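Saturday, quiet lab. Running sequence design on the structure tokens for the scaffold JK sent over.
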């Protein structure tokens, strides 16, 4: 409800989108996660925090291939769309790989 009010007034930003992405991950809602991840990409909100949350979401929804694609973008120095991974992103990626093999 709060996010909808922000969105209706065109006040949604990188932080509110990232929060909603995390809510979707924590709640295990793949459809909502996919919607907010697409919105983050369209908005250009691909910070290290958003990307790490997305990695977690892909692994928790058993989509390691999507996580690997995002990781490849994050570590590609020629790709300016995503930030370079930080320690937390690296650990999230490794943990996901360990969980899913």
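Result came back. Writing it out in full:
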């Amino acid at each position: 409800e709060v996010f909808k009010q922000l969105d209706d007034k065109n006040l949604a930003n990188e932080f509110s989108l990232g929060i909603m992405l995390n809510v979707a991950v924590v709640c295990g809602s793949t459809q909502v996660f996919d919607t907010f991840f697409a919105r983050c990409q369209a908005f250009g909100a691909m910070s290290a925090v958003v990307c790490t949350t997305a990695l977690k979401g892909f692994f928790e929804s058993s989509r390691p291939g999507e996580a690997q694609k995002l990781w490849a973008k994050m570590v590609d120095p020629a790709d300016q769309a995503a930030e370079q991974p930080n320690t937390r992103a690296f650990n999230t990626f490794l943990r996901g790989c360990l969980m899913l093999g």
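Notes for JK: The chain has a mean pLDDT of 91. The radius of gyration is 13 Å. Ask whether to fix the surface positions before the next round.
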